[in-house]
Design brief:
Length: 408
C-alpha cells in the first residue's frame, strides 16, 4: 500500500493504491454516519462528518440530521443553529446554500464565498444599469450596502428581507431581466456571500424559511476572522472534503467547489494528496494520512432527503447510483429523495395519501433490505409526527412513486 505523496498520479515508490467501488461505498457509509454503528450524537458532529450540509431547501437540513444523529429532535437542531450558533447557513460552492460548522467559516469566506460574491456582484451591477435604475451598478450596490449595515447596526436581533426593504427606500425595487427577477432579498444574499451579514433566526416553520439577517458582530459571541487568502481557504475546505468524500477525482472537486482546475490542482499539491486508481479507470485522490483500507460495515439502509450532501457529493456517481441517475436526478441536476442499501441508491421515498413515508424501489432488494427500509420509513413517519415535506425538486422516481401512492 502506498503511503507517500504522489507525482503525476503515482507514488514515489511506483505503486498506486487501488480503491474499488465496494470500498468507496464502505467509506461513504462510515464517514457519512449512515450506518447504525456510525451515527453521531449531535448536529455539529454530523456536519463535521459531511464537511457541510445542503440547505437549499430548509427541510433538507433537518432530514439530513435525522438520518445521521441518534435520537435527534427538531429542538436539538434549532438549538445548534439559533441558540448555540455553532452551525451557520452560508452561500458558497456553486452558489448553493449550505450549513457550515462555524470553524469552517474563516476558510470559506475568502475562497468559495468570495468567488460567488464576485460573480453575483458583477451580474447584479450589469442588471441595474440594463433596467435603468442607475448608470453605475457597483456604486449603487455600495450605497445599498452602507445603508443596510447602518440599519442592522441598530437592530441586534436582525431583520427579515421585507423589513429591510421597508426601512431602506432604495431597495424597494424589482429588477426584471430576460434571465432573472430580483429585489431586496438578492442584495442581502450578496452581502451574505461577502460575510457582511449572516442568516440569523428563522421566523417561519422548520420546513420553510423566512430568516432574519443580522450583523456577524451581533450574531456571534466571538468575531469570525477570515483566513489570509483564498488559497488557504480552499486548502482547508478540500482537506475536509477529501476526508468526507475521498477518494474523489479532480473533476469531482472542480464540480463540487464550483471552482477551476488550476485551483483544485494547486490545492491537491499543497495538501500532498495521494493519487489512487478507481474501478472507473479514473484517478482519485486521498489525504496522505488516510490511505488505510476501510472495512465493509454490517448491512445497512438509509432514507435521505432531497439534495442530501451524500448524493450530491460527487460529479461521477456510478459507484453508488448506477443505473438510476436519470430516475434520481431531475432535469436541472438536483437529486430527489433516495433510499439506500449498503452504499447504493435503490429507490426513493414519498408520502402516501395518509402522510406516511413510503419507499418506492427502482430495483429488487433482499427481503431483509425491504423490511429494513420499511422500518426506516416507519421511523421517519413517527419523527415527522404528521408533517408532510414538500419539495421543488421532484425526481422522475418520486413522481412515479407519488402516482403509485395515489393509486394512479
Amino acid at each position: 500500500m502506498c503511503r507517500e505523496s504522489s507525482v503525476g498520479g503515482k507514488c514515489h515508490t511506483g505503486r498506486m493504491r487501488h480503491v474499488p467501488d465496494s470500498e468507496r461505498r464502505a467509506r461513504l457509509a462510515v464517514r457519512h454516519a449512515l450506518t447504525p454503528a456510525s451515527r453521531v450524537d449531535s448536529p455539529e458532529a454530523a456536519t463535521q462528518a459531511m464537511t457541510v450540509m445542503h440547505a437549499t431547501e430548509p427541510a433538507t437540513v433537518y432530514l439530513s440530521y435525522w438520518a445521521r444523529v441518534a435520537g435527534v429532535t427538531l429542538d436539538d437542531i434549532d438549538h445548534s443553529l439559533y441558540t448555540d450558533r455553532t452551525l451557520i447557513k452560508q452561500l458558497a460552492m456553486r452558489r448553493t446554500l449550505f450549513v457550515f460548522p462555524r470553524d469552517l467559516l474563516p476558510a470559506v469566506l475568502p475562497s468559495s464565498s468570495a468567488r460567488v460574491e464576485q460573480v453575483e456582484r458583477t451580474r447584479m451591477a450589469k442588471d441595474l444599469v440594463a433596467v435603468g435604475i442607475t448608470d453605475d451598478g457597483h456604486a449603487w450596490l455600495d450605497r445599498a450596502r452602507t445603508e443596510i449595515l447602518a440599519l442592522l447596526a441598530t437592530r441586534p436581533d436582525g431583520l427579515t428581507a421585507q423589513e429591510v426593504r421597508q426601512a431602506v427606500p432604495m431597495l424597494d425595487i424589482s429588477v426584471v431581466t430576460p434571465t432573472a427577477t430580483w429585489g431586496a432579498p438578492r442584495v442581502l444574499i450578496l452581502l451574505g456571500a461577502a460575510g457582511d451579514v449572516v442568516r440569523a433566526t428563522n421566523t417561519s416553520h422548520w420546513r420553510t424559511g423566512r430568516l432574519r439577517w443580522a450583523l456577524p458582530v451581533h450574531w456571534f459571541a466571538e468575531p469570525i476572522s477570515s483566513m489570509d487568502d483564498a488559497a488557504a481557504g480552499y486548502r482547508e475546505i478540500v482537506r475536509r472534503w477529501l476526508f468526507s468524500f475521498g477518494p474523489g477525482t479532480e473533476a469531482d472537486l472542480v464540480w463540487w467547489l464550483g471552482s477551476t482546475k488550476s485551483v483544485v490542482r494547486a490545492t491537491l499539491a499543497e495538501l500532498g494528496a495521494v493519487a489512487v486508481s478507481l474501478d472507473s479507470g479514473a484517478t482519485g485522490w486521498l489525504l496522505p494520512d488516510d490511505l488505510d483500507e476501510v472495512e465493509t460495515p454490517d448491512p445497512w439502509v438509509a432514507l435521505l432527503p432531497v439534495l442530501d450532501p451524500t448524493v450530491m457529493g460527487w460529479q461521477a456517481r456510478d459507484f453508488y447510483l448506477a443505473p438510476h441517475s436519470d430516475q434520481v436526478f431531475e432535469q436541472r441536476g438536483n437529486a430527489g429523495t433516495t433510499a439506500w442499501v449498503d452504499g447504493r441508491v435503490v429507490g426513493c421515498w414519498v408520502h402516501d395519501s395518509s402522510g406516511a413515508v413510503r419507499v418506492s424501489l427502482l430495483e429488487p432488494v433482499s427481503d431483509w433490505a425491504r423490511d429494513a427500509l420499511d422500518a426506516e420509513a416507519a421511523r421517519l413517519t413517527e419523527w415527522l409526527a404528521g408533517e408532510r415535506v414538500a419539495t421543488g425538486y421532484m425526481s422522475p422516481a418520486m413522481k412515479a412513486a407519488m402516482l403509485e401512492a395515489k393509486g394512479g
